[in-house]
Amino acid sequence: MTTPKDWKTEGIRVVAPRERSAATPETRGMNRQVAISGGRTGSSALWAGTNHIRPGEVTGAHHHGPLESVIYVISGTALMRWGERLEFITKAGAGSFLLVPPYMPHQELNASETEDLHCALVRSGTEEVVVNLPDLDVAEDPEWIEF
Fold first, then answer.
1. Confidence (pTM)
2. d(C-alpha 132, C-alpha 49), whole Å
3. What is the pLDDT of residues 111-142, one digit of tens each?
4. Structural domain includes residue 93
5. What is the DSSP string of 77-98?
6. At residue 2, what are phi and psi to the nearest 5 degrees?
7. How far apart are CA 48 and CA 51, in angstroms?
8. For 129, how many CA atoms within 13 A lie in the half-sphere containing its CB?
9. What pLDDT band is residue 9 in, cutting at 50, 70 and 90?
10. How many structural domains is the chain composed of?
């Protein structure tokens, strides 16, 4: 027989905006903040946070190791490049979800020169994994993929 949980102390956890932390690996061009993780909140399966990309900014190429990632565009318009040479590109506006497979090299771009891009992030592990790819041979003319 399992011991019942104390749902008062082991139940819902709220992380207010002021409680998010920038203590997460950095990628050039974005401000990533962690809200939920194993270390911060005791999550047993997920990492969640936000990112903010300034107008016209292009992030560094990176991947998240074995973690699957979901990106939800809260506001603004994202361009996402991906592939071994970032040879593919697509566009996602507010309300769109993007699924990023494990080990997938990718790069976020803010499509606007005037509006910030804000996204919510969820990963399939309890701690952030960021592998920056500064020496990636980036394709000059990526292929547009429409969804």
1. 0.91
2. 18
3. 999 999 999 999 999 999 999 999 999 999 99
4. yes
5. EEEEEESTTS-EEEEEETT-EE
6. -90, 150
7. 10
8. 16
9. confident
10. 1
